[in-house]
């Protein structure tokens, strides 16, 4: 026959306190006590967890007559019950509560998987794009190229990673019926980004792999978003930051893949002449109440044909400040060192802009860029032409890309530099569209000659005037359309450094549509 025991309120409380003490300590260790809101990704709030842990009949699943305080609500009226029955119910309840608490705590530190896509076709008409056209012997170009991307990101409490695969091609470069063979396929199918980011703390992280380095106004380091292929670097990036300032230390060391890894046993010669062999940079940024300041120190190592590596250093920064309704931005960089050709580098860049409101939502920007150049009077061992390196140059020096976009602006192989005062209007059109109108005046900072070899017949330093018109709108947050038209009014001086017929019509037009949907967001 089972032996019955009476359990009074005090003994019940003592029993529960012994089992629940560790749970309350665990809750405090997860810093949940002061958080009344639902835990991230969890259906349970902290208050609900505490209510579930409270010593109640509802938790123990006991009717009132078996309440620890009895029907009368006092210790003296405690109802008799079997200790084993209450113990079993307590254990069952504790197991359920611990499971619920564990779910809440685990879901509070979730990981997120995101899958995005991008399809961006752009149709262009080029009649004097990058260089002057001669209509008597040359015809305009017309084509559509397209960027397609599939982007996966995974974010966890201790690390993140991203893989972005892209395919860039011109419509029609492959036949309608196309079967790829070994060695075939588009030369622009590639991994755009593939990196992992290790989070040492909330303030410190290390990103490793192929990644975009996009800083400030993208003057020196930019992801080249306008170009369909864009720009990314293989390297490492250490980030240390707090709420108002941050340090970024980036480093890269490149080797080509012509020699397979299995046989790459000797030498470090780098065969990719269009890229740096090694590069390091330190970037500092600080926010202030009315503006911000960024400083950059970049060491760029370019390999020469004899396998020697020559280094140039770029030092400078950019700052901005709000003056009531105006915004002033100033920028300065200095370059020194030796370039791959062995010449001593002594170059600089200055830029300034003032932004003022125009109407309720528009603005007006008045600015100027000055990039030093090399004149015919400079020593053969000297290079005074500033190199904006790995920036997004399409953004700055006219949308027709006459300067610093993979095309030389030089006389006798000496880059002339550029003075570019500009005026820009940004005007809202309706609720979703924006019209941008920009005028550039291109001026050479060095003398231009009709016959450079003899330095005879000095020409005007004015190279031309460019007008850029861009209309953009968003159909939905994921679908955007942009169309533009640009025209260049060139001078004889421009023809001397670019070739072509400066008297002919020089224009360019494009239309681009961008689809960028988020396909999936999953909390894991």
UniProtKB/TrEMBL annotation:
It comes from the Bacteria. Keywords: Membrane, Transmembrane, Transmembrane helix. The chain crosses the membrane at residues 92-109. InterPro entries: Alginate_export_dom, Alginate_Permeability_Chnl. Pfam families: Alginate_exp (PF13372). SUPFAM superfamilies: Porins. Residues 115-491 form the Alginate export domain. This is Alginate export domain-containing protein. It comes from Haliscomenobacter hydrossis (strain ATCC 27775 / DSM 1100 / LMG 10767 / O).
